[in-house]
Design goal:
The protein is an alpha+beta fold. It has one domain: Bit1, CATH 3.40.1490. Helices cover 49% and strands 14% of the residues. The protein is built from five helices and two strands; from the N terminus they run H-H-H-E-E-H-H. The longest helix is centred in the middle third of the chain and has 13 residues.
Length: 91
């Protein structure tokens, strides 16, 4: 998120004033994240990526601009960490 804010200060300021909501979503693996990244690029959705230097520069997260196209693209993704909340409820 910090990368996105620094790369897109005007858009980030508008988001902060208009909404200030975040949705943390998850994908199955790095391949799925790379596919999502590619789809965002194909649909002209601004993004910032985070690559983990400690694990071979793997793509581990992306932040997307708040827009309808990003919302449509991510609508089917589950909330991040949801599986852990379900396990705690079942215990």
């Amino acid at each position: 998120m910090a990368h996105f804010i620094f790369q897109n200060p005007e858009l980030s300021k508008k988001w902060s004033e208009d909404s200030d909501f975040l949705a943390l979503l998850s994908v199955k693996d790095e391949q799925a994240l790379e596919l999502l990244r590619h789809c965002c690029i194909q649909n002209d959705i601004l993004l910032a990526e985070f690559r983990e230097p400690d694990i071979g520069n793997e793509l581990t997260a992306i932040a997307l601009e708040p827009c309808k196209a990003a919302q449509r693209l991510t609508a089917g993704l589950p909330l991040a960490m949801k599986e852990y909340a379900e396990e705690a409820t079942a215990a």
